[in-house]
Q: What sequence folds into this?
């Protein structure tokens, strides 16, 4: 079984790429953002550490961590943000590596994918067999984010400036999927890369 990390800048279209892979290959796919939500659920060690660090004000009426309240708490405090990341990232990594070990025992799983914008920065290069970079031209990404999420140009640029440059993504990845144009050409590139694996109609 091959362990593949998928990364790329915001608006590059990673979700569409993963939906296609999920439909046509024997795989398990995990999105780091979704896993981060799971590991922060009430009662977990991660939850307890975050509340101890940030205070009870980040807990909502439902007893779970309020994502907006947490974001507001760390927005203007880089030290607190680093503290939160130091709690959440290892918890996410532990969860994913456990799932990977479980998947290795399942003969129906040929490929194991993990997607995150910060895969490179958080050290997944030492775990994965391959790192894939979903690329899209900056202007294309801006247009997508404006139309699909309603983001302002300023918000988009602020997010992009905090992410790795195209050169850094390319330098750290084994395979580049160009998703600037039509999805069909991106899908063909994926199929060629995965031609040794079972194709599901």
A:
């Amino acid at each position: 079984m091959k362990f593949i990390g998928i990364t790329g800048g915001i608006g590059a279209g990673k979700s569409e790429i993963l939906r296609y892979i999920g439909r046509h290959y024997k795989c398990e796919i995990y999105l780091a953002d979704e896993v981060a939500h799971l590991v922060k659920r009430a009662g977990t060690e991660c939850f307890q550490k975050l509340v101890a660090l940030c205070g009870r004000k980040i807990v909502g009426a439902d007893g779970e961590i309020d994502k907006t309240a947490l974001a507001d708490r760390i927005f203007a405090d880089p030290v607190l943000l680093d503290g939160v990341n130091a709690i959440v990232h290892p918890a996410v990594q532990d969860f994913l590596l456990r799932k990977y070990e479980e998947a290795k025992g399942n003969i129906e799983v040929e490929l194991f994918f993990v997607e995150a914008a910060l895969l490179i920065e958080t050290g997944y290069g030492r775990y994965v067999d391959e790192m894939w970079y979903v690329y899209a031209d900056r202007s294309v990404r801006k247009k997508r984010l404006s139309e699909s999420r309603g983001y302002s140009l300023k918000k988009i640029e602020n997010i992009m400036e905090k992410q790795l440059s195209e050169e850094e993504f390319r330098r750290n990845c084994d395979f580049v999927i160009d998703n600037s144009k039509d999805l069909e050409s991106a899908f063909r590139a994926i199929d060629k890369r995965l031609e040794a694996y079972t194709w599901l109609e």
The first helix runs from residue 14 to 24. The beta strands are 2-7, 27-31, 111-115, 130-135, 175-178.
